Amino acid sequence: MIFRTLGRTDVRIPAIGQGTWKFGERKEKEREEIEAIRFGIENGLTLIDTAESYADGGAEKVVGQAIRGVRDDVFLVTKVSASNGSYDGVLRAAEASLARLRTDRIDLYLQHWPSEKFDVAETMEAMAELVRRGYVRFVGVSNFDVDLLEKARAALDGVPLTCNQVAYHLKDRHIERSILPYCMENGITVMGYSPFGYAPQFFGKPGFPETGSAERAVLDEIGRKYGKTAHQVALNWVLRQEYVVSIPKAARLEHITDNLGALGWALDENDAARIDDVFPATGKPRADY
Predict the structure, then answer these.
(1) What would the pLDDT profile of 222-269 be if each residue is shown by its tens digit?
(2) Closest CA to 250 of 242, 238, 261
(3) pLDDT per position as a tens digit, 182-223
(4) Dihedral, CA atoms, 187, 191, 197, 202, nearest 10 degrees?
């Protein structure tokens, strides 16, 4: 496993974690989801990311079951929804997440999205209070642009902002323009989600290059050179940045095994440059950032 330092702390976290979006939505899938999380933990994927909004708390409940007996081996991340961004709302949401996760502390607590209703300063003041109470170890945000990152840092009153969780994959590189450089300069870990693009239900947003496309052909060709799949090439590319970790969703054991295959090797300069040519960091910033 490759490890990265969380922000400017002395805590090391795996470069690849486990995302749990849509976990807990179907009762008949819970055993498989729990087995997948445990398998990942056993193989070094001890960074677990979830959120109170996933399946209306269902994903946190699944994670809580999966980490029983191994809680101290896990770096646990969850997120408070923007709708709970008031000072009291954050405190209540954290307590509810702790109960669903069956734990006494959250390792990293993130504001899931910027709020149109509550000022970021109010939300961050509550996050800092959670740190003081010992319910939360570290504070971060998700889907924040540079201006909001500045406001969040200023409101934390000495508590460091350690993480910004954002979309990052071959077909969405907008963070490289300003967000990633800002985070690198200020010691904020970038936790990239959706490293293989967006799921089909996100109509109009780019997914993984389809088999038969020119983009996929390049990834397949590069993969054959290293004995890797196209998905492993894409994930290895995401992790080329020292300040970046990635949290691919993996609900089945074979997905976790495939994700692990992105580690232990590196794209050479020519192949990395070829990928940059095929997947250029161009275009306008997404509207939801």
Answers:
(1) 999 999 999 999 999 999 988 999 999 888 899 999 999 999 999 999
(2) 261
(3) 999 999 999 999 999 876 555 567 889 999 999 999 999 999
(4) -110
Tokens of 268: 């050479």
For residue 185, CA distances in Å to 78, 142, 146, 178, 245 come to: 25, 18, 12, 11, 16
- Report pTM: 0.94
Looking up tokens 């239900």, which residue turns up? 201
User: Residue 272 and residue 77: Cα distance in Å, rounded?
Assistant: 30
Token pair listed for 110 = 């993130």
CB atoms under 10 Å from CB of 117, counted, come to: 10
Burial 200-220 (b: 16+ CB within 10 A, else e): eeeeebeebbeeeeebeebbe
d(CA 44, CA 278): 32
